[in-house]
Amino acid sequence: MNIHAYPTDAQTPVDRAEATRVAAEHLPADLPGHDRRIVEFADGFAVFAVQPLHAPPDRPIPIGGSVYVIDKATGAVSFWPTYPSGVIAAHYALLLAAGQLVVADSWPDQD
Question: Which domain of life, per UniProt (predicted)?
Fold first, then answer.
């Protein structure tokens, strides 16, 4: 199964500072009341929206959200289910080894 990714203006190879910049400029704004966490792994950076630990108990936890992965080699962004970062890293390594990361020419329309 191919994973589709979308191009960015990232300076490559992407480091943590560049991943932070790419996330801020190319990904949707964080959910209100949530923090953005970036977790580095061998081939990229997983970007999560995280509810703060001391959030009010009545704040709903987002279900079915997305995790974004910023590829270190290309700076391209792909979308993932809310898997733990270790699972994402393992699957990402497998798809890269199989040549299954497909970087599109542009981002899809907002429609």
Answer: Bacteria
Other beta carbons less than 10 A from residue 49's beta carbon: 20
Tell me: pLDDT of 64 over 60: no
Run of H or E including 92: helix 85-97
Calculate the CA 73 to chain-centre distance.
14
Residue at token pair 């001391």: 54
Helix (H) or strand (E) holding 94: helix 85-97
- Its pTM stands at 0.85
Helical (H) or strand (E) element with 107 = none
> How does strand 67-71 pair with strand 44-50?
antiparallel
